[in-house]
Design brief:
Layout lengths: L2 E4 L5 H14 L7 H6 L4 E5 L5 E11 L2 E9 L8 H15 L4 E6 L2 H5 L4 E3 L6 H6 L13 E6 L1
Parallel strand pairs: 4-5
Antiparallel strand pairs: 1-2, 2-3, 3-4, 5-7, 6-7
The structure holds coenzyme A.
Length: 153
Protein backbone atom coordinates (compact mmCIF):
# COMPACT_ATOMS: atom_id res chain seq x y z
CA UNK A 1 0.00 0.00 0.00
CA UNK A 2 1.20 3.52 -0.79
CA UNK A 3 1.63 5.94 2.12
CA UNK A 4 1.59 9.73 1.71
CA UNK A 5 3.88 11.56 4.12
CA UNK A 6 5.72 14.84 4.55
CA UNK A 7 9.33 14.90 3.34
CA UNK A 8 12.34 15.12 5.66
CA UNK A 9 15.77 16.55 4.95
CA UNK A 10 17.13 12.99 4.85
CA UNK A 11 14.80 12.25 1.87
CA UNK A 12 16.38 14.87 -0.40
CA UNK A 13 19.03 12.65 -1.99
CA UNK A 14 16.48 9.97 -2.95
CA UNK A 15 14.11 12.67 -4.25
CA UNK A 16 16.85 14.10 -6.46
CA UNK A 17 17.65 10.60 -7.77
CA UNK A 18 13.98 9.95 -8.59
CA UNK A 19 13.60 13.15 -10.58
CA UNK A 20 16.93 12.99 -12.43
CA UNK A 21 15.66 11.62 -15.77
CA UNK A 22 12.83 14.18 -15.97
CA UNK A 23 15.29 16.97 -15.11
CA UNK A 24 17.57 15.79 -17.96
CA UNK A 25 14.59 15.81 -20.35
CA UNK A 26 13.71 19.34 -19.22
CA UNK A 27 10.27 18.25 -17.95
CA UNK A 28 11.02 19.15 -14.33
CA UNK A 29 13.20 22.01 -13.14
CA UNK A 30 16.43 21.11 -11.31
CA UNK A 31 16.38 22.14 -7.65
CA UNK A 32 19.55 22.01 -5.59
CA UNK A 33 19.63 20.15 -2.29
CA UNK A 34 19.82 23.50 -0.49
CA UNK A 35 16.79 24.89 -2.35
CA UNK A 36 14.87 21.70 -1.55
CA UNK A 37 15.91 21.98 2.09
CA UNK A 38 14.64 25.58 2.22
CA UNK A 39 11.28 24.36 0.93
CA UNK A 40 11.24 20.94 2.61
CA UNK A 41 7.87 21.59 4.28
CA UNK A 42 6.23 22.02 0.87
CA UNK A 43 6.81 18.41 -0.25
CA UNK A 44 4.57 15.37 0.04
CA UNK A 45 6.06 11.95 -0.68
CA UNK A 46 4.47 8.71 -1.83
CA UNK A 47 6.27 5.72 -0.27
CA UNK A 48 5.82 2.01 -0.99
CA UNK A 49 5.72 -0.85 1.54
CA UNK A 50 9.52 -0.94 1.66
CA UNK A 51 9.63 2.82 2.39
CA UNK A 52 11.04 3.62 -1.05
CA UNK A 53 9.98 7.00 -2.44
CA UNK A 54 7.91 6.31 -5.57
CA UNK A 55 6.68 9.86 -6.14
CA UNK A 56 6.45 13.36 -4.74
CA UNK A 57 5.08 16.81 -5.35
CA UNK A 58 5.24 20.23 -3.73
CA UNK A 59 2.81 23.00 -2.84
CA UNK A 60 4.56 26.34 -3.09
CA UNK A 61 2.89 29.55 -1.88
CA UNK A 62 3.11 32.66 -4.04
CA UNK A 63 0.57 35.00 -2.44
CA UNK A 64 -1.99 35.15 0.35
CA UNK A 65 -4.54 33.41 -1.89
CA UNK A 66 -2.39 31.65 -4.49
CA UNK A 67 -0.25 28.51 -4.45
CA UNK A 68 1.38 26.28 -7.07
CA UNK A 69 1.65 22.53 -7.48
CA UNK A 70 5.18 21.91 -8.71
CA UNK A 71 7.94 19.31 -8.98
CA UNK A 72 5.39 16.51 -9.42
CA UNK A 73 6.88 13.13 -10.24
CA UNK A 74 5.91 9.47 -10.07
CA UNK A 75 8.56 6.83 -10.74
CA UNK A 76 8.37 5.28 -14.20
CA UNK A 77 7.38 1.84 -12.93
CA UNK A 78 4.53 3.17 -10.76
CA UNK A 79 2.72 5.39 -13.25
CA UNK A 80 -0.94 4.90 -14.13
CA UNK A 81 -1.86 3.61 -10.66
CA UNK A 82 -3.43 6.79 -9.31
CA UNK A 83 -0.37 7.86 -7.27
CA UNK A 84 0.11 11.18 -9.09
CA UNK A 85 -3.53 12.07 -8.57
CA UNK A 86 -3.35 11.10 -4.89
CA UNK A 87 -0.26 13.29 -4.36
CA UNK A 88 -2.02 16.29 -5.95
CA UNK A 89 -5.11 15.65 -3.83
CA UNK A 90 -2.95 15.61 -0.68
CA UNK A 91 -1.43 18.93 -1.78
CA UNK A 92 -4.89 20.40 -2.47
CA UNK A 93 -6.07 19.33 0.99
CA UNK A 94 -3.02 20.93 2.55
CA UNK A 95 -3.77 24.16 0.65
CA UNK A 96 -7.40 24.03 1.70
CA UNK A 97 -6.43 23.60 5.36
CA UNK A 98 -4.33 26.77 5.04
CA UNK A 99 -7.21 28.66 3.36
CA UNK A 100 -5.56 29.08 -0.02
CA UNK A 101 -8.12 29.99 -2.68
CA UNK A 102 -6.46 29.13 -6.00
CA UNK A 103 -3.81 26.61 -7.00
CA UNK A 104 -2.06 26.73 -10.36
CA UNK A 105 0.46 24.59 -12.17
CA UNK A 106 2.69 24.85 -15.23
CA UNK A 107 2.86 21.52 -17.02
CA UNK A 108 3.11 19.42 -20.18
CA UNK A 109 0.47 16.98 -18.87
CA UNK A 110 -2.68 19.04 -19.33
CA UNK A 111 -5.06 16.04 -19.39
CA UNK A 112 -3.67 14.74 -16.09
CA UNK A 113 -4.44 18.03 -14.29
CA UNK A 114 -7.81 18.38 -16.05
CA UNK A 115 -8.76 14.98 -14.63
CA UNK A 116 -8.30 16.57 -11.17
CA UNK A 117 -10.45 19.61 -12.01
CA UNK A 118 -7.80 22.13 -13.12
CA UNK A 119 -8.70 24.47 -16.01
CA UNK A 120 -6.38 26.05 -18.56
CA UNK A 121 -5.58 29.77 -18.16
CA UNK A 122 -3.33 32.14 -20.13
CA UNK A 123 0.25 31.94 -18.86
CA UNK A 124 0.33 35.76 -18.78
CA UNK A 125 -2.08 35.66 -15.84
CA UNK A 126 0.56 34.05 -13.59
CA UNK A 127 2.49 36.20 -11.10
CA UNK A 128 5.48 37.82 -12.81
CA UNK A 129 7.91 36.72 -10.09
CA UNK A 130 7.11 33.09 -10.97
CA UNK A 131 8.45 33.69 -14.47
CA UNK A 132 11.54 35.53 -13.28
CA UNK A 133 12.43 33.36 -10.31
CA UNK A 134 11.80 29.94 -11.87
CA UNK A 135 11.19 29.97 -15.62
CA UNK A 136 14.40 31.82 -16.30
CA UNK A 137 16.27 28.78 -14.90
CA UNK A 138 14.54 26.45 -17.38
CA UNK A 139 16.39 25.27 -20.47
CA UNK A 140 13.27 25.92 -22.60
CA UNK A 141 13.03 29.59 -21.55
CA UNK A 142 11.80 31.81 -23.23
CA UNK A 143 10.25 29.48 -25.83
CA UNK A 144 7.94 27.71 -23.42
CA UNK A 145 5.22 25.30 -24.46
CA UNK A 146 4.10 24.44 -20.95
CA UNK A 147 0.43 25.00 -20.21
CA UNK A 148 -0.86 26.91 -17.19
CA UNK A 149 -3.87 25.49 -15.36
CA UNK A 150 -5.65 26.61 -12.23
CA UNK A 151 -8.13 25.20 -9.73
CA UNK A 152 -10.24 27.21 -7.31
CA UNK A 153 -10.68 25.35 -4.03
C1 LIG B 1 2.28 13.18 -14.71
C2 LIG B 1 2.49 12.08 -13.69
C3 LIG B 1 2.89 12.70 -12.35
C4 LIG B 1 1.16 11.31 -13.53
O1 LIG B 1 1.28 10.40 -12.45
P1 LIG B 1 0.48 9.00 -12.46
O2 LIG B 1 0.59 8.43 -11.11
O3 LIG B 1 0.94 8.17 -13.59
O4 LIG B 1 -1.00 9.53 -12.78
P2 LIG B 1 -2.37 8.85 -12.23
O5 LIG B 1 -2.26 7.38 -12.38
O6 LIG B 1 -2.68 9.39 -10.88
O7 LIG B 1 -3.40 9.43 -13.28
C5 LIG B 1 -4.51 10.25 -12.93
C6 LIG B 1 -5.32 10.54 -14.16
O8 LIG B 1 -4.54 11.29 -15.10
C7 LIG B 1 -4.43 10.59 -16.34
N1 LIG B 1 -3.04 10.71 -16.80
C8 LIG B 1 -1.94 10.27 -16.17
N2 LIG B 1 -0.83 10.58 -16.85
C9 LIG B 1 -1.25 11.22 -17.96
C10 LIG B 1 -0.57 11.77 -19.06
N3 LIG B 1 0.78 11.73 -19.18
N4 LIG B 1 -1.31 12.37 -20.01
C11 LIG B 1 -2.65 12.41 -19.90
N5 LIG B 1 -3.35 11.91 -18.89
C12 LIG B 1 -2.66 11.31 -17.92
C13 LIG B 1 -4.74 9.14 -16.00
O9 LIG B 1 -5.28 8.48 -17.13
C14 LIG B 1 -5.76 9.27 -14.90
O10 LIG B 1 -7.05 9.55 -15.41
P3 LIG B 1 -8.39 8.97 -14.68
O11 LIG B 1 -8.41 9.55 -13.28
O12 LIG B 1 -9.48 9.46 -15.56
O13 LIG B 1 -8.21 7.49 -14.68
C15 LIG B 1 3.58 11.05 -14.14
O14 LIG B 1 3.24 10.56 -15.41
C16 LIG B 1 4.97 11.65 -14.20
O15 LIG B 1 5.72 11.61 -13.22
N6 LIG B 1 5.35 12.21 -15.37
C17 LIG B 1 6.67 12.81 -15.57
C18 LIG B 1 6.83 14.09 -14.80
C19 LIG B 1 5.78 15.13 -15.13
O16 LIG B 1 5.36 15.34 -16.27
N7 LIG B 1 5.33 15.83 -14.06
C20 LIG B 1 4.36 16.89 -14.16
C21 LIG B 1 5.09 18.19 -14.09
S1 LIG B 1 4.05 19.44 -13.38
Amino acid sequence: MIKYTKAKLSDIQAMQDLVLDEVKKGIILFRSADEMATNIRSYILAKDDDDNIVGFGALHFHAFDLAEVRSLIVSDKCRGLGIGKAIVEELLNEGKALDVKKIFTLTYVKAFFESIGFEEIPKESLPAHKIWADCIKCKHFPVCDEIALIKTI
